[in-house]
Amino acid sequence: MTTPVLYLSHGAPPLADDSTWTHELADWSESLPKPTSVLMVSAHWETAPIAVSSTRPGTPLLYDFWGFPQHYYQVTYDAPVAPELAGRVSTLLGSTGEPVAHDEGRGLDHGAYVPLKEMYPDADVPVLQLSLPSLDPTKLFDLGRTLAPLRDEGVLIVGSGFTTHNLRWFNPGAGPDAAPPAASAEFDHWAAEAVGAGDVDAVLNMLDRAPAGRVAHPRTEHWAPLYVAMGAAYGRSGSASDVVGESAIDGFWYGMSKRSWQFGVHSAGAGAA
Hints:
Elements: E1 5-9, H1 19-30, E2 37-46, E3 51-52, H2 83-94, E4 101-102, H3 110-119, E5 127-132, H4 137-147, E6 155-161, H5 182-196, H6 200-204, H7 206-209, H8 213-216, H9 224-234, E7 246-249, E8 252-253, E9 256-257, E10 260-263
Parallel strand pairs: 1-6, 2-5, 2-6, 3-4
Antiparallel strand pairs: 1-10, 7-10, 8-9
């Protein structure tokens, strides 16, 4: 089984209160083959040298957010750990001379467990998180290419970010379905066309190519997981058709684009406009 590769906009903890988005994530996972494990690359973990999360059962989640009601800090997601996957990641990256640290104190952060709780609510799929060792587009694309063999082992590689991410747009008083700022809408339209065409060069050079790129992403950590995802879809041999992204979710949430893509293996369950 060759798995697809995903890039998803992961939302903040209140995503769990948005019935539309939670159903979209659940429906998406239902359309996918059940993976043997998930390798999650979240915008919220940057460290070099590259590291993998804990493989010790019972490591608590990382509630890496502030100012939310207390019940968001009581969410649990007890997915099995993935020591075998950690070993495979170390082997693959080691073949390129990239050392891999094992951070046994690092639980899943909200970029990982918030969407996975909606996609795999039974917490029955082993999960491993991988750090972003830099924000360099080419290095992250190449990282994804190195990880591509995992797809033939049933591993679902997921880049978790946000298609637009400017927190100045976040206005709780306006509600989640308020019309997005023009810059967010313009960037989303560009992203849909660039990723939908498999235009790797445009994606890697987003800051120079996209309208409102530097406004939609004042810092690129929420766009960067897309580089890894597209690299993993492209693989070592490289097929242009494999980096054509199919929109699985679109729309906006508090002004930010929640557009999410599926690469490599397309599904009848994906395909938002």
